[in-house]
Amino acid sequence: MAAKAPKKKSVLGRGLGALLEDSNSESNKNLEPSSVGTMNEINLDQIEVNPYQPRTHFDRVALEELADSIKLQGIIQPITVRQLSEGEFQLISGERRFQASKIAGLKSIPAYVRTANDQQMLEMAIIENIQRENLNAIEIALSYQRLLSECKIKQEELGERVGKNRTTVNNYLRLLKLPPDIQAGLRDNKISMGHARALINIEDVDKQLHIYKQTVEEELSVRKVEQLVRDLITPKEEKPKPEKTGDSKHRTYEVRQIQQKLSSHFGTRVNLKADGQYRGEIKIPFVSTEDLNRILEIINL
């Protein structure tokens, strides 16, 4: 009985190198074997930029500094391209080197030639940029969203594709629910991702924008914003009604004492309600994933 052919390994979570390796082996039969899978010196005017590039802004000063380095040292690390047709290529990764080479006046650039379909191009661009560039949080979130919507990747698989855990990916995607003004502030580094994650917990957009503006104007810390959000979303304690009996007064005193101990224990204002039979509920508010994890650690969950 013939042995079964080994199954092809999944590329999930294996990074840019794995995607390049697999795409190169799968789809190079229609291209010149002398160029695919090799490093070549390619004319810059034969290369078009990657339409799936998640970075939307390149710092001009940083590009000129890289161009000066290239003039002195040359290209240390080749770019990666895919061949579209004879004499026509498209960037997969290395756009900063590509743009800086143009500024430096180079006519050609060393490049690895690979093959990739559009989905692989998008995945490669995202992975390469996350690994090598300082993308802002909104650019990362939009890139993740493109993987979900354009490449039809399931959300539970996305973390493996980009080498991040599911919680991290979800935190980025939630940023896209913020109002445009706050997204722009995050993009422009007026606030951090920690600030933004706290603001997400406010359902009222006007209140969100109010605290956002206060954060920017007063340069509030993430901890201070979390406290403002916590105070906003935590219901104010109801004033206790006058008690008629000594037992009722004693019961109310006990409930308050327990509530104070719980609030001190969890580092946040805990709401405790109990009736005459000591039936009720305990509410522990949290304003971010980190805040929730902190509470879960306290109760050993």
Automatic annotation (TrEMBL):
Ranges of Polar residues composition bias in the record: 25-37
Pfam families in alphabetical order: HTH_ParB, ParB_C, ParB_N
Positions of region (Disordered): 16-37
InterPro entries: Chromosome_partition/occlusion, HTH_ParB/Spo0J, ParB/RepB/Spo0J, ParB/Sulfiredoxin_sf, ParB_dimer_C, ParB_N
GO MF, one example: DNA binding
An individual GO BP term: chromosome segregation
SUPFAM superfamilies reported for this sequence: KorB DNA-binding domain-like (SSF109709), ParB/Sulfiredoxin (SSF110849)
Keywords for the protein's UniProt record, in alphabetical order: Chromosome partition, DNA-binding
Gene3D superfamilies: 1.10.10.2830, 3.90.1530.30
Superkingdom: Bacteria
GO cellular component: chromosome
Domain ParB-like N-terminal, chain residue ranges per copy: 40-130
Similarity annotation: Belongs to the ParB family.
UniProt name for this protein: Chromosome partitioning protein ParB
Originating organism: Roseivirga echinicomitans
